[in-house]
Amino acid sequence: MQRGKLGMLLAAAAAFGAYKYSKMTPDQKNTIRTRGKDFLDKNLGGLGNLFGKKTTPTPTNGNGF
């Protein structure tokens, strides 16, 4: 398959997924998030923490830098 067609196919799949996700109820969205987090924890181990890591802002010295 040519690269252009493959790119269009991937873009269409992503658009369809975004559309279906936008039509879900909040309970369904929460279930999907939970299943995704469980999948990361079970299959990727410590790599899953990389995506969920919260960063704390570094303190500034008052001049904005």
Report low-confidence residues grouped into runs of 5 or more: none
Kindly, what is the distance between the CA atoms of the first and last residues, rounded to a whole number of angstroms?
Answer: 50 Å
* CA-based shape: extended
Order of helices and strands: HHH
Computed CA radius of gyration, to the nearest angstrom: 19 Å
Major sheet description? none
Task: Look at the helices and sheets and give the structural class.
Answer: mainly alpha
Strand content: under 5%
Share of residues in helices: 55-70%
Q: How many alpha or pi helices?
A: 3
Tell me what the structure shows:
This protein is mostly helical and 65 residues long. The protein has a domain at 24-50. It has helices at 3-22, 26-44, 47-52. The model has no long low-confidence stretch (mean pLDDT 81).
Topology:
Blueprint: H1 3-22, H2 26-44, H3 47-52
Features:
single chain; 65 residues; mainly alpha; 3 helices; 0% strand; extended
Give a summary of the structure in a few sentences:
This protein is 69% helix and 0% strand. With 65 residues, the chain is an all-alpha fold.
